[in-house]
Structures are given as C-alpha cells and as structure tokens.
C-alpha cells in the first residue's frame, strides 16, 4: 500500500488520499467480484448504484463465501448486493482531516481495518482511502507535530532562558538602582523643566535637612535657591533640553537657603533624560569642602606669611638691637655731663620707640605663628588694647566709631595670651562684618570687673542675629555669611578657647539694631609691687671679668659691635667676633673661650650647627652658650629653640638684660654678686610675678612670654 501514500506536505484535501476509485454494482455475482479481486490488489471495493454507495465488500469476505466445499455452488451465482459488509464508513470531501482520523481510527475489531469511502457533497462515490494510509499519514503528522513541538520546546526553553536572563538583569538593575538611588552618597532627584522635585532619595532629604513628602505634590527646588542664583539655575534647566543626547552633564554651584541651617553651598550635576522629559540631578553639599579648601589656602598663605614675617622680624630685630644698645651706651656715656640732659632724653625716646617696634613685631609673630598653648599671668586690659591696635586700620577703613571702656588698673588673669587674643580679634572682626552697609557703625568694647570675674563685652550696631540662628551660632561650620565670606569657625573657636580658660561666652542681647557678646572670665590676683632693681650699667668695666674671653658669632656687624662694646665697657671682657658659624669654629679651635654668644640664622653654618659642633668637640663650653635671635625663621626652629635647655636672648634686648645674663654665666657659682637678681633655672632670668621664660625686653607688652624685665628710664639713665 506504500505506493498509494501521498507526501504529507502535499495533502490539500481528502482526494489526495484515495488509493483507487474501483466500484462494483450490486447486481454482480459473488464469483464475478471474486475474479475482480483476483485482478486487482485492493482489499475493499465499494458497491454503488448509479454512483451512490450502497455498501462495501472485502476480499476476505468474498473468499470466505467461496472457499467452502460448496461455496461456488451456493454463493457463486448470488448477487454481491446480498453479501455487503454489515457497516462501512463514508466521509465527504469537506470533512476535516482530524475528524476523518477520529472516525476511522476509533473503530474496533475488523471494522477498524476497512477502507474509508470518500464521497462528494452529493454522495457520489469518489474513491477508497486505505486505513494504513490514514495511519501512516497520522503518524507523519504526529511526528511532524512532535518535531514542531520539540522545536517549539527548544525555542521556548531558549526564550525562557532569555527571559530568565532578562529578569535576572532586571533584578540586578533594580538592585543597582536601589543601591545607587537609596544608598548614594550624593543626593539624587528628578526635576521637571521648572525645577519641581518629582522624586528624590533619602540622602537629598538629609542634605536639605527636611522631608519631601510625595503625597503633598512636587516640591520646588528653585524656591530654596538664593535669589541671585535662582535665575541662573532656571536658565541652566532650560538649556539642558536643547543639548545633544551625547553631551556631558551640565553642572554648577548654587547657594541654597535652608530653614534652620542658613546658606549652604551645593554642587549640581544635571543631565537631560530624553525618554521621560525629566532632568536628573546629582547634588552634594560642598560647604565644608570649600571651607577646608579655603583653610588649606590660608594654611599655604600662613606658611608664606610665617616665612616672610619670620625673615622680616629677624632683619628688623637685628636692626633694632644696635639702636637700643647704642642709645643706652650713649646715654650712659653722657650721664655725668651736665649739659646733655636733652641728649639723654633723646636717647630714651630712641630706645622706647625701638622697644615699641619690637613689641609690634612680636605680636605679628604670635598671630602668624602662635607658640604652644601655655597659661601664664597676662593682663586682659593689655590684650584688648593690643587686639584693637592690630585692627585699628580695619575699623578706620569701615569708618567705625570705636569706644573703649577699660579699667584704669591692670586686669591680671591666667591665660594663653596668643589664644585669647585670637578670641578678642574674632569677636571684633565679627562685629565689623555685621556693621558693613549699616548707616551707623559703632563698636563699644568694655571690661567690667565684678568680684572675682571679668566681663568682656563687645557691642556693635550691626544687623543682629535671628532668633532661629541663636542656638547654633557656636556650632562648627555654621555661618549666615556667604560661603566666600565666612567659614563658620570663628565663634566655634572662641567658644572652645573661652571654655579652656574656664570662662563662658554668650549673646547678652541682640536685635535688628545690634548685638552684644559677653565673655566672662575668672580674675587673677594682682601681683605686689616689687622694688626696682639697682642699675646694672657701671661707670667703668667690672674688674671681675677682665680675664674672661667671649666669642660673638653674628652676621650683623652692628649687633656684634653693640654687644662687643657693652661687654668691653661694662665687664672688661676680651672679645672676638665671627660673621658665621664656620668662622666661629676657626676661632674656637685656636682660642679658649669662657662664653659664646651666637645668632641663630647665619650664612654657611647657623647657630644650631655651631652648637652641635661645640657639644661634640667642646662639651664643657656648651653650658656657656647663649643664643641671640630676632626670629629663628620657622615654627620648627622656634620650637627647637624653646625646648632646648639653653639661654636665649630675644632681639632687641636691653643692655641690662644682656649684662645680667652674661654675668650669671661668667661669674663663678661660689661668689655670686650681691647686686645681681638671683638667677632662676639654667638659661633664664627670673621675672617678678611670672613663670620663667625666654629672655626678651618689651615694656609695652605685659604678658611675660612677650617681655622679660624692663626698667623705668630714670633707673636706666640716672641723673
């Protein structure tokens, strides 16, 4: 039957499945039909009457009828119409193939194997369809469906895997989104064209210090931007829409006025999202960053200032030293000449002016390079006067009326002078800034003595402090000034310094007409008056030191000449001079010395290098080494100078201090001079009522770390 099987792909209707169209009439005899079966390979034949199918006969049934002993005799002449199969299956050409399969292949028994009769719509016989053809066709169709299902399954698996990958990528993308959006260190927000916040992360709310509830509708970011920056921000938003898609994000820095936090500087990175018509913004608060950058710039400037001020101080102090020294020498020479009283007064004026100049230089050094924090006895009144003096030009430039209300007597206290002077400077500068642009600019600085406390009040006629800002004015980095005007550290530093001095600082009153800051400090005890020391300048050389030999190492010839003249005329010492440390070593190698006075900053080999050589090669002479310096030149060298166990004379020094120091080192310990002030610790001259400090002389500065002993003019220049 294989030759009757059509190509599955070519089956267009049931006629393509017909194996044969042979049919017999019902009047034919059984033997005639048998002969027909013998000539044809078909197993079933349709029996038709005028084209209409009346039944089906099979080869097997006909053979069974004629196969018996008397089969031909009994059935051979009978008509085939009497021996039709009991039932047959006929289908029309319009019957769907699946229905044909269902009807033909669901039959049971021998009926299952009968060919299917195909008729047209009118019932006319069209042919016979073998069951094997249907079975094989169904098998092919099933196989095709299986292959199609397998391919579909493979495709489905691939699609499922692809879908899984997409879902996984989507999940990862969502995770990254949540990490970047929710946990970003930057504030992330989506804006519309007008600057309304459509969504944002928690970091932005933290940076703004406020919640942005979605239920209340979009919040306006532009309302928070300060007036001058607002138009610039809106222009930037409008420009973003016209930028090409590949353009880099636009950016800028804008000041936001935040409730309760004052003005804060924010950096924005903005990009246009073409698909949604939104603006994505990344935001960061860079207020502290800009403050730190300015502090770094200030630090760099401070290093430069330190270098410049140190060098200038060294040079000026070197020039002031001979002015003071020779003025005293001239006054000493003419003291017994009756007609030279005016000349002695002129010398006194020269000396006092030089010492006042030295005082100003020391104050500049303190501000540019403050020393280590050290509490000593200071005069609050003098510190206020010094601070006002330093800021007098700033106040005059502001056209500010200054009023000082200070007690007539000193206000002693234990303080770190440099640190507390900075507190006074900060308060006055804050007051000056607050009065800019005001019609009336008056600054009133008062000291009120109340029992065991001082009250320092700094009052201005500025714009005052808003009530909502008062609780935060002492917080670090809080400022109501523009980012380029203030760091928010001034009052914080004041608060910390006052607390270290066991005091208190507060705003005693504020209004739109002005503010008054009040600093309360514990008062110190007034030191008892001490008798003035005897004059140290002698009419002639002290015979006790004639055999002493002194080496002076200083590149300033006027300084070394002045020191040489003082020691020669008052002590009678033998003096050698060297312009640098290398020359000094040459002198030491060929001469025995009782005392070395050396500058710190010298060419070729400085004072520290000379001292190190002496310690290594003449260790006994190291205890008789005195440093003379206008300034060591750097904070590190100054710290080294202060921590070294050495005697240090700060230029410009007076003759009294120079002689007292040299006598103490040169005089044998067993025979101290009765007219000398008893020496303090090694390398220092005791100052009445104060801790021992590095030697210097400055009568206009009351803080002991700035000045050692000083004497009235009538004792330095007796009549």
CATH class of the largest domain: Alpha Beta
Gross geometry: rod-shaped
CATH fold descriptor of the largest domain: Rossmann fold
The poorly predicted ranges are 1-10, 529-536, 669-719
Estimate the mean pLDDT confidence: 77
Number of helices: 19
Number of domains: 4
How much beta, percentage-wise? 15-25%
Q: What Rg is obtained from the alpha carbons, in whole angstroms?
A: 58 Å
CATH superfamily of the largest domain: Response regulator
Q: What is the first-to-last residue Cα distance?
A: 158 Å
- Based on the structure given, which CATH architecture of the largest domain is correct? 3-Layer(aba) Sandwich
Enumerate the strands of the largest sheet in spatial order, edge to edge or round the barrel.
9-8-7-12-11-10
Helix/strand class: alpha/beta
Strand count, sense and barrel status of the largest sheet are: 6 strands, antiparallel
Number of strands: 24
Tell me roughly what share of residues is in helical segments: 25-40%
Give an account of the 3D structure:
This protein has 719 residues and is an alpha/beta fold. The protein folds into 4 domains: 2-139, CBS-domain (Roll); 184-285, PAS domain (Beta-Lactamase, 2-Layer Sandwich); 411-525, 2-Layer Sandwich (Heat Shock Protein 90), CATH 3.30.565; 543-716, Response regulator (Rossmann fold). The strands form 6 sheets. The protein has a 6-stranded antiparallel beta sheet. It has a 5-stranded mixed beta sheet with strand order 14-16-17-19-18. A 5-stranded parallel beta sheet has the order 21-20-22-23-24, sandwiched between helices. A hairpin with a 3-residue loop joins strand 10 and strand 11. The longest helix has 52 residues, at 131-182. It is rod-shaped and about 195 Å long.
């Amino acid at each position: 039957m294989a030759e009757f099987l059509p190509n599955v792909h070519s089956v267009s209707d049931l006629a393509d499945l017909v194996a044969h169209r042979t049919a017999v009439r019902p009047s034919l005899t059984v033997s005639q039909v048998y002969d027909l079966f013998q000539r044809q390979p078909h197993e079933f034949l349709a029996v038709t009457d005028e084209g209409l199918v009346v039944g089906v006969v099979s080869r097997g049934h006909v053979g069974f009828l004629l196969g018996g002993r008397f089969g031909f005799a009994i059935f051979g002449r009978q008509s085939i119409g009497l021996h039709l199969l009991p039932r047959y299956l006929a289908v029309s050409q319009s019957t769907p193939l699946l229905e044909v399969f269902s009807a033909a292949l669901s039959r049971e028994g021998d009926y299952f194997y009968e060919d299917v009769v195909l008729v047209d719509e009118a019932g006319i016989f069209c042919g016979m369809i073998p069951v094997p053809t249907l079975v094989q066709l169904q098998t092919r169709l099933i196989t095709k469906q299986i292959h199609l299902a397998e391919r579909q399954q493979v495709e489905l698996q691939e699609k499922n895997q692809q879908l899984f990958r997409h879902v996984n990528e989507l999940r990862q993308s969502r995770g990254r989104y949540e990490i970047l959006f929710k946990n970003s260190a930057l504030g992330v927000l989506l804006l519309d064209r007008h600057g309304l916040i459509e969504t944002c992360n928690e970091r932005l709310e933290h940076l703004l210090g406020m919640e942005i509830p979605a239920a209340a509708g979009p919040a306006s970011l532009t309302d928070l931007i300060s007036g001058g920056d607002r138009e610039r921000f809106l222009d930037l938003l409008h420009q973003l829409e016209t930028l090409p898609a590949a353009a880099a994000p636009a950016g800028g820095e804008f000041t936001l006025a935040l409730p309760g936090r004052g003005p804060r500087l924010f950096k924005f990175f903005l990009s246009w999202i073409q698909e949604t018509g939104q603006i994505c913004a990344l935001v960061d608060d860079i207020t502290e960053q800009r403050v730190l950058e300015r502090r770094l710039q200030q630090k760099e400037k401070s290093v430069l200032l330190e270098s410049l001020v140190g060098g200038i101080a060294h040079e000026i102090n070197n020039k002031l030293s001979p002015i003071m020294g020779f003025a005293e020498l001239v006054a000493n020479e003419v003291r017994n000449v009756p007609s030279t009283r005016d000349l002695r007064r002129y010398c006194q004026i020269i000396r006092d002016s030089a010492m006042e100049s030295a005082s100003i230089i020391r104050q500049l050094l303190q501000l540019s390079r403050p020393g280590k924090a050290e509490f000593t006895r200071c005069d609050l009144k003098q510190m206020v006067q010094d601070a006002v003096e330093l800021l007098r030009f700033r106040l005059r430039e502001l056209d500010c009326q200054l009023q000082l209300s200070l007690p007539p007597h000193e206000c002693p206290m234990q303080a770190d002078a440099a640190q507390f002077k900075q507190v006074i400077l900060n308060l006055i500068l804050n007051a000056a800034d607050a009065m800019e642009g005001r019609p009336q600019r008056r600054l009133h600085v008062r000291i009120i003595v109340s029992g065991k406390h001082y009250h320092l009040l700094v009052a201005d006629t500025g714009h005052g402090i808003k009530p909502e800002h008062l609780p935060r004015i002492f917080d670090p980095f809080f400022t109501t000034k523009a980012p380029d005007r203030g760091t928010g550290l001034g009052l914080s530093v004041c608060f910390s310094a006052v607390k270290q001095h066991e005091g208190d600082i507060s705003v005693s009153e504020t209004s739109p007409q002005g503010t008054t800051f009040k600093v309360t400090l514990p008062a110190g005890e007034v030191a008892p008056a001490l008798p003035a020391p005897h004059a140290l300048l002698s009419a002639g050389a002290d015979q006790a030191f004639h055999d002493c030999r002194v080496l002076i190492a200083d590149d300033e010839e006027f300084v070394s000449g002045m020191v040489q003249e003082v020691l020669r005329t008052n002590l009678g010492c033998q003096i050698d001079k060297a312009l640098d440390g290398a020359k000094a070593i040459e002198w030491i190698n060929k001469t025995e010395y009782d005392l070395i006075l050396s500058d710190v900053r010298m060419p070729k080999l400085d004072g520290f290098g000379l001292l190190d050589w002496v310690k290594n090669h003449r260790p006994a002479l190291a205890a008789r080494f005195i440093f003379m310096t206008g300034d060591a030149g750097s904070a590190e060298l100054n710290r080294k100078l202060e921590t070294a166990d050495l005697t240090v004379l700060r230029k410009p020094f007076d003759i009294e201090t120079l002689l007292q120091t040299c006598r103490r080192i040169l005089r044998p310990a067993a025979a101290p001079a009765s007219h000398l002030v008893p020496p303090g610790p090694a390398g220092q001259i005791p100052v009445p009522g104060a801790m021992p400090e590095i030697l210097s002389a400055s009568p206009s500065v009351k803080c002991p770390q700035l000045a050692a002993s000083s004497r009235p003019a009538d004792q330095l220049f007796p009549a």
